[in-house]
Design a protein that fits this description.
By secondary structure, the chain is of the alpha/beta class. It has one domain (7-221): Rossmann fold (3-Layer(aba) Sandwich). 37% of the residues lie in helices and 11% in strands. Helix 1 crosses helix 7 (176-185) and helix 7 packs across helix 8.
């Protein structure tokens, strides 16, 4: 009986969600290959967090893939547009915010798919969430279903080898508190992660952007304390 582990490509941004899905993939006994995107985001803190998460998570190899989304902007994360702060839950879900990066998850998953095909990996893990999120259209189940169909129509593996790709989204229907509880059970050290859209020069979280507010609420609802530093 073969004991060879199946390989999986995990999208790791350095945030809370991606650290959790990495732990879930490890728990499912996959051999872990992580891909992190240097896409022109406005700060480097999350890149450093992604490296820490990958080291702690037992990743066989991490690729940092360069992209230049900053060249066309259109998002507060890839330009000098101000990051929204102190928005209510209703405001966060009323429309697609300026922190949305056009087509980001489509591009990220497409590149991850290419690496997975080279590795002979049929499983991709991504930490999209359609419950506690900022209204991004590429975090919805409909998007994942459509991308999975595309993956199996557009690749040699899907067409010739009859080995369908699977896009795992174990967090998609969980609240942030549920994600945190699950991660803690799996031993995730959330002190290694970073979620803030607008950290200060020391890398401390602002505490006021959508991502910080969702994260802080998640820890509070889970009855836990967020271990990352915040601006006083």
């Amino acid at each position: 009986m073969s004991t060879t582990k199946k390989r999986a490509v995990v999208l790791v941004s350095g945030g809370l969600d991606s650290a959790t899905i990495l732990a879930i993939a490890r728990e499912q006994n996959f051999e872990l290959y992580a891909i992190t995107f240097d896409y022109g985001q406005r700060h480097r803190v999350e890149m450093e967090a992604a490296e820490r998460v990958c080291v702690a998570g037992g990743v066989v190899r991490q690729i940092v893939f360069p992209l230049d989304f900053r060249s066309f902007g259109g998002s507060a994360l890839t330009s000098d547009l101000p990051v929204p702060k102190n928005r209510s839950d209703a405001e966060m879900t009323a429309d697609i915010p300026i922190t949305y990066v056009p087509a980001r998850n489509t591009v990220f998953l497409s590149i991850a798919l290419g690496w997975a095909e080279v590795l002979g990996a049929n499983d991709l893990f991504v930490g999209v969430n359609a419950v506690d999120y900022s209204g991004y259209p590429d975090c919805r189940p409909e998007f994942i279903e459509a991308f999975t169909t595309l993956a199996n129509l557009a690749t040699k593996t899907g067409i010739e080898q009859g080995k369908p790709f699977r896009v795992h989204t174990p967090l998609i229907s969980l609240s942030k508190a549920e994600i945190i509880r699950q991660g803690l059970k799996l031993g995730v050290d959330y002190a290694l992660t970073h979620s803030c859209y607008d950290p200060d020069a020391q890398g401390r979280a602002c505490g006021h952007c959508d991502s910080c507010q969702l994260r802080l609420k998640g820890f509070a609802d889970a009855g836990e304390t967020d271990p990352v530093p915040y601006v006083p």
